[in-house]
Amino acid sequence: MKKTSLFWVLLWMVPFGGANAKAQPLTYQNSTQFSEDNMSKSLAWYTLNPHPMGSENQTKIAQSLEITLKKLGWKISKQRFKAQAPNLDSLRFGGTNKNDKEIKIVDGYNIIATLKGNENCSIIIGGHYDTKFFRDFKFIGANDGGSSTVLMIELARMLKKENFKMGTLGSCSITLVFFDGEEAFLPNWDEGNNILGIQDNLYGSREFVKKYVQEKSNIKKFENKPIHLTIILDMIGHKNQKLFMSNGSDNTYAEKFVLSAKNVDIKKSLLSMEDDHIPFKDLNIPYLHIIDWTNLKEWHTVNDTVEIISFKNLANFGQSLLTFLSNKRAENGK
């Protein structure tokens, strides 16, 4: 083992070393390209333990994300919110405490990183960094949560090197949002609403939109800049990667992304999905929702591990995303 590898292992064990352990920033090779090694090491950190919203491990993940992105030179804020969620300790949902109520208040944390652009527009790129709760096995979510998280961290490093031309998507202010609580606590997506009358999913993206998206003269803004486009990423790193942009994604930019993609299997789709793009869709904010909904054998199983991830695929996708951001902005998103 190289000395640098040992350093990484020791560094990444710190955030999970106990309740009083101090979170540390992740450290990266300063490669001029998307680094497979950087993302591999990030995913090893991400998959050490399950970390559903509200868990101690998720709090530590949030702390490390916050200080890592700050170290990379981004303006960072942490949105703390409280949400009603199914109480999995209650008897009804498989717990053992007969006195526990069926709904409890859970703390969530969105990590928001912004790189100021030169023009009066905003691009939001988001993905969830929580893992789904399973009582019967250890779910670490290498693809479902992990792949988009490590890609976005590496994207933060790479975007600091870019100098986009005026009039391009990349010349806008770019905000990376690591959403907490995309996953439902209950086994199925709609159970919370059907059983308890509460929405048990998309906690972080709903709270982000509620607090940070302002409307003036029918224009949706983030930090006083019109939101030109939102890009939501999920499950993008499978070794047999087949990506698509779900139904409702902005048609013009979907076509531009396909043309920008090099060595990436991606296409437009008529399949409608619910993911962190929905709160933006509900406000008529143009978006691209990019996901792999073909390779589902390991989805929400104990087998969603690092072994199913291709870091080459992730690097190719990251470079395609940079190429896409170098495209000229379409007028009014059309």
Kindly list the characteristics that best describe this protein.
single chain, 334 residues, alpha/beta, Aminopeptidase, 10-stranded mixed beta sheet, 10 strands, 30% helix, 20% strand, disordered N terminus, signal
| CATH architecture classification name | 3-Layer(aba) Sandwich
What is the overall silhouette? globular
State the major sheet.
Answer: 10 strands, mixed
DSSP strand tally: 10
In CATH, what is the homologous superfamily? Zn peptidases
Count of separate DSSP helical elements: 9
Termini Cα gap: 52 Å
CATH class value: Alpha Beta
Residue fraction in strands: 15-25%
Q: How many domains make up the 3D coordinates? A: 1
Q: What are the segments in which pLDDT stays under 50 over at least 5 consecutive residues?
A: 1-20
Gyration radius over CA: 19 Å
* The CATH topology: Aminopeptidase
Query: What's the rounded overall pLDDT mean?
Result: 92
**Considering DSSP H and I runs of 4 or more, what fraction of the residues is helical?**
25-40%
Query: Could you say which structural class the secondary elements and strand pairing correspond to?
Result: alpha/beta
Helix and strand run:
HHHEEEHEHHEEEEHEHEH
Signal peptide: 1-21
Keywords: Acyltransferase, Signal, Transferase
GO molecular function: glutaminyl-peptide cyclotransferase activity; zinc ion binding
Domain Peptidase M28: 110-324
